[in-house]
Structure formats: structure tokens, C-alpha cells
Amino acid sequence: MRAAIYPGSFDPVTYGHLDIIRRAADIFDELTVSVLNNKIKTPLFSVEERVKMLEEATKDLPNVRVDSFSGLLIDYARKHDVHVAIRGLRAITDFEYELQIAQTNRKFSGGELDTMFLTTSLEYAYLSSSTVKEIASFNGDISQCVPEFVARSIYEKYGYGR
Ligand code: PNS
């Protein structure tokens, strides 16, 4: 069985992430979308909230499950016996960072963890969770960026009732 992990912060999930999830779920038999519990970053949503939103947004995809992890991705992947990590590439600016992480993960896993990149669909190439949060923090329209239930949760965090 071909399995992959799509790791990320997903703070919160956007249509860009969902595009990658759908396409990776078509390629692999089983896809685990895993939210990083990163103690260094201060996220808008808790890990539990991010997992819940991802579960809701992917409920129509039977071969996708949602999980969370702390620590190194290579340790998490080894524990679950998964050998492919999925990452989305939006632009050349993503590439340098992603290449370094992918090479580090391959090296430090002894070749056990490879990274497969999917290029984000052009209509979502501009999209990032940070941009969405910034627009929403000024009560701007984010309906093109995230599912409606996610948008409602973001506005709630910033004190806007919609
Ligand atoms: O959505 P993001 O924040 O761009 O995702 C980054 C992520 C979660 C893929 C990356 O930070 C990660 O895998 N972190 C876990 C720690 C780790 O294994 N780092 C790689 C070696 S430096």
C-alpha cells in the first residue's frame, strides 16, 4: 500500500492546502494530514481546532485521515512506517526552504523519508494562511481563500461576528 504524510502548520487550512490534499489523495492509497504541534510558533488556532477543521474539510475523502505530531517529522514518519512526505510548492521562493528541509529529512532518516512536491494550482498560488489571517484581522473578505466554516472561525478569533 502506498502511504504518504502531508505535514504542516495548517493554521488554518486554506483552499491551497485542500488542493494539495485532494491531489495527493488521488495518487496515494492512504494520506495522513498531520498538524505540527510547534511550541515555538504562536498559532491562531490550537492543534485540536486545526485537526477538527481539517477533518471537516476532508470528510468526503475516505483515504485521508488527520493527525497531529510533535518533534521531528522523520521520527513521526518512521513510527508510522511511512516513507513519503508531501509538500506544496507555490513559487520559487518556497523552493529554497523546501529543498533544504527535504534534503535534511532524507539525510537524517538514512534515506527512509523522501519528499514529493506538488505544485499548487495557479488559482491558489498567492494563498497562504498568514495572508488569510491578516486580511481577516481587518475584517476583509476571505471567502475565496478558505471554506465558509473556516472563515467563520477565523472572524470569531478576531472578534468579528458574521
Ligand atoms: O506549514 P509549515 O509551517 O510550512 O510546515 C512546516 C513543517 C511542519 C513541514 C516543518 O516545519 C516540519 O516538518 N517540522 C517538524 C520538525 C522537523 O522535522 N523539521 C525538519 C528538520 S529541520
What is the mean pLDDT?
95
* Name of the CATH architecture: 3-Layer(aba) Sandwich
Bound molecules: 4'-phosphopantetheine
| Record field, number of beta strands | 5
Span of the ends, CA to CA: 44 Å
Number of separate structural domains? 1
What class would the helix/strand composition place it in?
A: alpha/beta
The rough form would be described as globular
Range of strand content:
15-25%
Q: What spatial order of strands do you see in the largest sheet?
A: 1-2-3
Our count of helices gives 6
- Rg to the nearest angstrom? 16 Å
CATH class: Alpha Beta
What oligomeric arrangement do these chains adopt? Answer: single chain
H/E series: EHEHEHEHEHH
Helix content: 40-55%
List keywords for this structure.
162 residues; alpha/beta; 3-stranded parallel beta sheet; 6 helices; 19% strand; binds 4'-phosphopantetheine
Briefly summarize what is shown.
With 162 residues, the protein is of the alpha/beta class.
Q: Please, could you describe this protein's structure?
A:
The chain is α/β, with parallel strands linked by helices and 162 residues long. The chain has a single domain, classed as HUPs (Rossmann fold, 3-Layer(aba) Sandwich). The protein is 41% helix and 19% strand. It contains six helices and five strands, in the order βαβαβαβαβαα. It has helices spanning 15-27, 47-57, 73-79, 92-108, 129-137, 148-157, and strands spanning 3-8, 30-36, 64-69, 84-89, 114-119. The chain has a three-stranded parallel β-sheet, with helices on both faces. It has a two-stranded parallel ribbon with strand order 4-5. Strand 2, helix 2 (47-57) and strand 3 form a beta-alpha-beta unit. The chain is globular, with a radius of gyration of 16 Å. The mean pLDDT is 95. The site of 4'-phosphopantetheine has 9 residues, from strand 1 and helix 4.
